[in-house]
Specification:
Blueprint lengths: L9 E5 L2 E4 L8 E4 H5 L22 H11 L4 H8 L5 H20 L6 H9 L3
Antiparallel strand pairs: 1-2, 2-3
Helix pairs in contact: 2-4, 4-5
């Protein structure tokens, strides 16, 4: 068995697999310990030291990054495949996060001048 870091999303372990109950994972899923070790969603702060806070849902860019990391698509291997680091992963993640935050504000009727803001995010102003 591999020594895994503390993670409150791990809900069991058997035969080299771990059960992940992170909200971004659709339902409880079993993953290899290797995937668990490289997971971007790991919550390594022990429960006893965690400050109580209201739950914040991850933004779209963060969710896509986490999903891709679960299947092994992370920036280091991509840079090796492409032959260089282009920064596209971080740019895409930032843009998707801004777009998600904008959509949440519009859905909650909190966004003033929604079209102008969307044009700024998409770079079409």
């Amino acid at each position: 068995m591999t020594n895994l870091p503390i993670c409150r999303h791990r809900n069991g372990r058997a035969r080299g697999k771990v059960n992940c109950v992170h909200p971004s994972v659709l339902g409880p899923e079993w993953f290899s310990e290797r995937i668990c070790l490289s997971c971007a969603l790991a919550d390594t702060v022990p429960e006893s030291r965690r400050e109580p806070s209201k739950r914040v849902l991850p933004l779209l860019g963060d969710t896509i990054e986490a999903a891709l990391s679960l299947v092994g698509v992370v920036s280091t291997p991509v840079a090796q495949w492409v032959g260089h680091t282009c920064g596209g992963c971080e740019k895409r993640k930032a843009k998707l996060n801004k777009l998600d935050a904008w959509a949440r504000q519009v859905a909650a009727d909190k966004a003033e001048d929604a079209r102008r803001r969307l044009s700024e995010i998409m770079g079409t102003t």
